[in-house]
Each structure stands twice: as C-alpha cells, then as structure tokens.
Backbone:
C-alpha cells in the first residue's frame, strides 16, 4: 500500500472511537470520491485550522476570536455564569436553547489519579473573574461523577464567599428513565429530593 | 457554534461508521491539539490528494501512478490474475502476504437491484486483458454473497474459453469457527467439499 495512504489511515485510526479497520473504511470512502469528499474535508480542516481558536474569556472554541460570540453577545445575561468541564458540555447546554448566560470552561475535573490539580483547571482565574464581574449567580454544571463532584465541592467552597448564589444542576430520574433500570444512587437521590406537585 | 466547526462536524458525520455525536467528539479531539493532530491530518490529506490515484491497469489506489507498484513489480507472478470486487479486498489479500500475482479490481459486483451491469464493472476490459496477456490462471476472489456469486458465475462463463485455469476461493468452516455457531449453508458446503487427510 502507498505510504501516503497508510499514513492517513494511521492518523484516522488514532481518532477517538476509530480503529484501524474503520479508519481504512473511511479513507477508502474518501478516496472513492476524491475530488468531492476528500477535497471538501481538506477545505473544512483548513478553514477551522486558520480561523478557530479558544476564547480568551470562557475557553470556548469559536471563529470569532479573541472573544467568542457568546461572550460578545449583549443579548445574553452577563450576570449569570455557567461553569462546565469541557467544551462539549458547553455545546450540549447550548443545544438545549434553555440557557442564556455566560460560560466558563474548566478544561476537565480535579483528579488525583491523573494529576489534575486546581492550577490546571484555571480555578484561580475563575475566582478572580467572579470577583471582578460580580455575577448574580454561578451554576456549577459539572459531571455527576466522583471527579466532577469533587470539583463542584472545591469550587463551591471558593465561590460562596464571593458570589451571592452558587447553584448546581438538579439530580434525579432522567426523562424517559424507567425506575427498574435506574442505579440505586440515582433512585436514592431522587427519593430524598422528592418534590410536591 | 462557529459555522466552520459545524461544517467540519457535518463532513465527519457523513463518513462511514460515524454519526453526529462521534463526529463532534473527533472534531473536539482534533481541536484540542490543533497544532499537532489537526495539522498532521491536513498534511496527510493533502499528500494523498495530490499523489494517490487509481492504477490504469488493475484499479488499485497507489502513489506510484499511472501504473501501481504491484503491476510494475517484476518479482511478482505476471501469469496469475486475482479478480476482486473492491480495493479493500485487494488490501486484505495483500495483508496475508500469501499471494504474489496481479490483481484486477472490478469496483463492485453485478446487482440487478442497484442497476450494476457488466458494463459498470469493466468486465469487457477484464476479458480483453485476459486475451492480450495470456494468464496461466485467473482466481475469482469475489464475496460469497448472492451478488458476488452471480458475478463469479458470469465472469467464469466469459473466461473459461480464454484462460486455461479459472479458479475460485475455497469455501468451508472458517479457522477458529465453532460448528454450533455456523450457518447451515456453510456447514452443508463444508460437508460436501470434505477432504481426506
């Protein structure tokens, strides 16, 4: 096989969710319509590479840099900040179209095993930003995992003296979830946090 | 989300085996290490796009065009031709390192439903090539599907008067296959074609 094709297959096979077989299939598919599919991929990658960068304020990826279109948007609520672990979480919340405030991307969660400390997550930047901007509310929208909850706890301790209202996402039975298939932890949390009609 | 990112995600999501969620994950992964991963992908795509093309003789994809490195190789057996449906089949046989002849890529199999006739598969080119080159053997290494077998039958009828030896791949129990899990068709074929020790 040509080394050029082999090299491209290798690059694809290292992408998340792909292996050598699926990478081979993708490269063959691209090569089958070289002039259309492969070239449009090339142009799209070039565009992203030249235009997209991280927002200096929130950490989101956008073509409108150094400040992204969310941070620049005057129609959004600049008094509310939503702290998320990753950009994919920011995108997930944006897709719901039910939040109209600002964001702060940590870039991960605290993890003793992976050696991720408060310094890696820019938590002091977050604290300083909260001091400077005087947010009315900070929502900690981190994962409901051990690391996510540790991070939530750590950030809450730092922000409670500065921000009037620090909240976190509700926990309970997911929409469409059948009780029989739910894990015990979620069921217990949902029972404890039960609400009246 | 930036339209550039959105567009790249869309392109990835149309690749075989990928959906919107996996495409998003891949693009975020590429963006997380823009200067290394994304740029190496760009360069690899550029290289393939500028150098790789179809071999004029066998239909294989190679950087050494118009005649690919297999067709050019004088250490290979130019008296033996292996007919395959797709380039991925050619690569699969090459990976085994147990075949040393030439190839001919049909580009698919006859299919009445998909409207693929003998004209689409360059079968007359194959017949002409067999007449001109005087191969000692032609191996029909097509899939063991209905379409593959129809194509095998069709080509065999055309080649038997021209080529001294037309063969097909052996059919039977795959290596490591448990009889209990095998389909009836394979088991019947294996029983009929049983061999002595």
Residues:
């Amino acid at each position: 096989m040509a080394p050029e094709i082999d090299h491209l297959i290798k690059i694809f096979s290292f992408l998340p969710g792909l292996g050598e077989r699926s990478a081979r299939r993708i490269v063959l598919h691209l090569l089958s319509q070289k002039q259309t599919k492969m070239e449009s991929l090339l142009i799209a990658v070039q565009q992203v590479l030249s235009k997209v960068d991280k927002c200096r304020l929130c950490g989101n990826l956008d073509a409108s840099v150094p400040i992204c279109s969310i941070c620049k948007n005057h129609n959004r609520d600049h008094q509310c900040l939503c702290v998320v672990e990753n950009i994919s979480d920011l995108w997930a919340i944006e897709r719901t179209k039910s939040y109209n405030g600002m964001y702060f991307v940590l870039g991960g969660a605290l993890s003793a095993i992976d050696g991720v400390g408060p310094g890696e997550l820019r938590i002091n930047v977050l604290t300083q930003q909260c001091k400077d901007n005087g947010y009315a509310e900070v929502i900690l929208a981190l994962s409901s995992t051990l690391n996510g909850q540790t991070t939530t706890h750590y950030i809450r301790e730092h922000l409670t003296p500065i921000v009037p209202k620090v909240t976190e996402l509700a926990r309970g039975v997911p929409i469409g979830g059948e009780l029989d298939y739910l894990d015990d932890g979620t069921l217990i949390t949902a029972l404890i946090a039960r609400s009246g009609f």
Notes: The helical segments of chain A are 3-13, 20-32, 34-51, 69-72, 87-96, 123-133, 146-159, 184-192. The beta strands of chain A are 53-54, 61-62, 77-84, 101-105, 137-140, 165-168. Residues 34-51 of chain A form the longest helix (18 residues). The CA atoms of residues 82 and 103 of chain A lie 5 Å apart.
